[in-house]
């Protein structure tokens, strides 16, 4: 990154959230309760998904959060997945539940996630969580969407009164992010594959968030000079690495700041999942003083 484009790295911000989660976990155990426990339900043989689950498990173990995986066949019927999620929702020893994607063909993540108890929905996947977010009520936001806002906060970038173009309207990133940004008094435009002139919209924005899953989609021509760019994209490269939705070489020197891939939104997302799990465990142990009111 050149001197004129700051790097919005996520490591420091992520470390802060992990420290908070660890503090909660240690306090709950000191009080005689159980350590927070996250369960990831996997019904795929996708290698990048397996890598992601391993990285969450390792990160959780380091801060005193248990993380188990329930593996279902990659051709599991939606009913089997739903039943598993309902069983975990009823299990008092489980505080957080994540339904990993991709899912077997024909299974809808949003539909199945409706079986995750809202108080354990640490990745904001239950449509009820999205609805509560939209209504300005307490709920866990999808960790990636929240990570974008937290990353901007951590780098001292104000949102109130700024124009933000979000590229992508998925239920897990674009839509919840739009609600979080509105809550912070930003003026938000959500773009998608049918947006007629993407560059014209993004050029009018102070902040551009790229969450389309298209490597190199956002170039210098999409930006006003001095724009802040957050790259949510994680696209696999041929050499086994990851690349974002932003063409970093192209926007260097045009953008005031850009989040790197990897090392930007990703680590903050993982840290927030753990923080949410710790908060869910705290709410279970102290129902009189909950942060989340599902
Ligand atoms: P998704 O469900 O495939 O949604 C992609 C969105 O981008 C859709 O709304 C799509 O529009 C839009 N889009 C696709 N091509 C476009 C184009 N050429 N111009 C404008 N919009 C376009 O993907 P997702 O789950 O939201 O994930 C988005 C990216 O974030 C992926 O790279 C994913 O791997 C990454 N991700 C990263 C993290 C992390 O922790 N860092 C977590 C989750 C996801 P339509 O609605 O019209 O199809």
Describe the structure concisely for a colleague:
The chain is α/β, with parallel strands linked by helices and about 290 residues long. It folds into 2 domains: about 90 residues, Rossmann fold (3-Layer(aba) Sandwich), CATH 3.40.50; about 120 residues, NAD(P)-binding Rossmann-like Domain (Rossmann fold, 3-Layer(aba) Sandwich), CATH 3.40.50.
What is the domain tally? 2
Report the helical percentage.
Answer: 25-40%
Shape: globular
CATH architecture of the largest domain: 3-Layer(aba) Sandwich
> What is the CATH third-level topology name of the largest domain?
Rossmann fold
Please indicate the percent range of residues in DSSP E strands (runs of 2 or more). 5-15%
Distance between the termini: 43 Å
Helix and strand pattern: EHEHEHEHHHEHEHEEEEHEH
């Amino acid at each position: 990154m050149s001197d004129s484009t700051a790097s919005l790295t996520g490591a420091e911000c992520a470390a802060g959230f992990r420290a908070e989660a660890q503090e909660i976990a240690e306090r709950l155990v000191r009080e005689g309760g159980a350590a927070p426990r996250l369960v990831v339900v996997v019904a795929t043989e996708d290698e990048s998904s397996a890598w992601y689950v391993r990285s969450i498990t390792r990160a959780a173990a380091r801060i005193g959060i248990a993380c188990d995986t329930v593996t279902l066949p990659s051709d599991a019927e939606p009913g089997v997945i739903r039943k598993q999620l309902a069983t975990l929702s009823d299990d008092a020893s489980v505080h957080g539940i994540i339904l990993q994607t991709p899912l077997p063909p024909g299974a809808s993540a949003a539909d199945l996630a409706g079986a995750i108890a809202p108080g354990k929905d640490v990745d904001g996947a239950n449509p009820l969580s999205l609805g509560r977010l939209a209504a300005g009520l307490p709920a866990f936001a999808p960790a990636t969407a929240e990570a974008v806002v937290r990353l901007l906060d951590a780098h001292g970038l104000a949102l109130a009164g700024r124009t933000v173009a979000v590229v992508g309207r998925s239920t897990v990133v674009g839509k919840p992010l739009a609600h979080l940004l509105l809550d912070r008094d930003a003026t938000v435009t959500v773009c998608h594959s049918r947006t007629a002139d993407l560059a014209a919209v993004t050029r009018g924005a102070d902040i551009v968030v790229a969450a389309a899953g298209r490597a190199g989609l956002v170039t210098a021509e999409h930006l006003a000079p001095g724009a802040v760019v957050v790259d949510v994209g994680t696209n696999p490269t041929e050499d086994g690495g990851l690349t974002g939705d932003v063409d970093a070489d192209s926007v260097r020197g045009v953008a005031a700041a850009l989040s790197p891939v990897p090392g930007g939104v990703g680590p903050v997302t993982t840290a927030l999942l753990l923080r949410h799990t710790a908060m869910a465990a705290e709410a279970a142990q102290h129902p009189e003083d909950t942060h989340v009111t599902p």
